[in-house]
Amino acid sequence: MTAEGAEGGPRASEDEDRARRHAVVIGGGLAGLLAAHVLTAHADKVTLVERDRFPEGPDNRSGVPQDKHTHVMLEGGQGALEKLLPGIVGELLDEGSPRVAMPTDVLQWQVGHWYRRTRPTTHVLTGSRPLTDWVVRRRVLGPGSRIETVEGAEVTGLLGDATRVRGVRLRERGLPAAATAGTTLEADIVVDASGRSSRAPSWLAALGAEPPHEEVLETGLAYATRFYRTPAGLTDPGFRGVYIIPNPDQRYGGILMPLDGDRWSVILSGLRGNEPPTDDEGFLDFASKLPHPVLHDWLLKAEPLTPIHGFRKTGNVRRRYDGPGRRPAGFLATGEALCAFNPVYGQGMSVAALCAVALRDALTDPRRTPTTGRVQRALLDAARQAWDISSGADKNVPGATGNIPRGRPVDRPGDWYLARVQRRATGDPVVGEAFRRVLSLTAPVTSLFAPPVAKAVLFGPDPQSPVEPQLAPEG
């Protein structure tokens, strides 16, 4: 971004511009690591500020509240990671992250029907969040890295004024504010990658700037997760995952996926009023309420490795830093600090990678000066499809709350068409492939209206979906 202002001003030469720039990134999760990596090509110094101290290996840390839950890296996210860190997907696989073929490997139930287990059209990585973060951190902060880290420190505010951000205020984590009130870190660019709990809106208000409008949609979904080991000698069940998706008529969901270290993760989810419990007996009883016993039967034979961890911060929140209002140059938000999704859709890590690619492309676009406003809009655009998917589905959940318009007459034709897409995706390979590519963020939503897909959706016969889960893939 230009040093002169958010939306204009002369552009210095690349060498001069870089020589006087210091970029600070708040948050050492996936979004922060990738943003810092991108910024090393555009700043003389990049500092990554993280509340925790990074573990030496793929271990849990308190600053990632969901790292004890199931995570997936969609194919769109994998492609973005490869653009930023060539070979990184191979490193994840080498370290044990499972690669699961969809729909071939998974028993998937949606809208009252099972999916046919046809040839794979997309793949997801299902390694644990600590493993994924560690492999990326190893590359980004490894030997030769130009990124400096400040660990065990909390950002308490921004330096500057309503026209330009000039750094951050810090304090050592765990100490009272007065103990380190004078600690500051000056910077030309500040990127907030602190996640859905970001406090940047209040920091901006303290500078006299306008905080962003927040779009919120909350279904009341809650989930609980436990990791397991398959008992020795247990017969191969014929599948590598189970995915039962709740809907307005069936409010219980469940996911089984393989993990690194010969482990498995199980998530049980329920909408408001049907929250899964976190005790052993209640967890199993909840699983028995799913529309088929396949996951419950698996749980009865598996060996628990961890306690059951619950999570309830599942609302969709989008902060419109691109909207009208007086905001300072030099400040950007990315990842879930910009756009946080209902985690049931598994989009967070992939969008973090897509945002980093958008940051890279916006900063190197030869046609346009990379002003703060333009770069922020590019970041929002990178998250737009995931937002449309998660908020578009959640707005139709009974009892959903928030400030996003729902039930508008203008939306009804699109909702009707997409409902037909979901129903036909279970048994029609053409519709199923198109639907999965959109959900995996490798194809735009408009691809669902391509002639072959639209013909099958609008005029094709009702597909013959399996009545029971197929315990073996189709030949």
Give me the number of helical elements: 13
| Alpha carbon gyration radius | 23 Å
Overall average residue pLDDT: 90
Main beta sheet:
8 strands, mixed
Distance between the termini: 53 Å
Helix/strand-derived category reads: alpha+beta
Give the helix proportion (percent range).
25-40%
According to DSSP, the number of beta strands is 22
Residues in β-strands, percent: 15-25%
Question: Which shape, going by the Cα principal axes?
Answer: globular
Low-confidence stretches: 3-19
Task: Fill in the keyword field for this structure.
475 residues; alpha+beta; disordered N terminus
Characterization of this structure:
This protein is α+β, with helices and mostly antiparallel strands and 475 residues long. The chain contains 13 helices and 22 strands. The strands form five sheets. Strands 4, 5, 13, 14, 15, 16, 17 and 18 form an eight-stranded mixed beta sheet that branches. Strands 7-2-1-11-20 form a five-stranded parallel beta sheet, covered by helices on one side. Helix 2 packs parallel to helix 5 and helix 2 packs parallel to helix 9. It is globular and about 65 Å long. It starts with 13 loop residues before the first helix and ends in a 16-residue tail after the last helix.
Short description, anyone?
The protein has 475 residues and is an alpha+beta fold.
Task: Give me the secondary-structure topology.
Elements: H1 14-19, E1 22-26, H2 30-39, E2 45-50, H3 75-84, H4 88-94, E3 99-102, E4 106-110, E5 113-114, E6 122-125, H5 129-140, E7 147-151, E8 153-160, E9 165-172, E10 184-186, E11 189-192, H6 200-206, E12 213-218, E13 222-229, E14 241-244, E15 252-259, E16 263-270, H7 280-287, H8 294-301, E17 303-304, E18 309-311, E19 316-320, E20 331-333, E21 339-340, H9 348-364, H10 372-394, E22 401-402, H11 412-425, H12 429-439, H13 451-459
Parallel strand pairs: 1-2, 1-11, 2-7, 4-14, 11-20
Antiparallel strand pairs: 3-6, 4-5, 8-9, 9-10, 12-19, 12-22, 13-16, 13-17, 13-18, 14-15, 15-16, 19-21
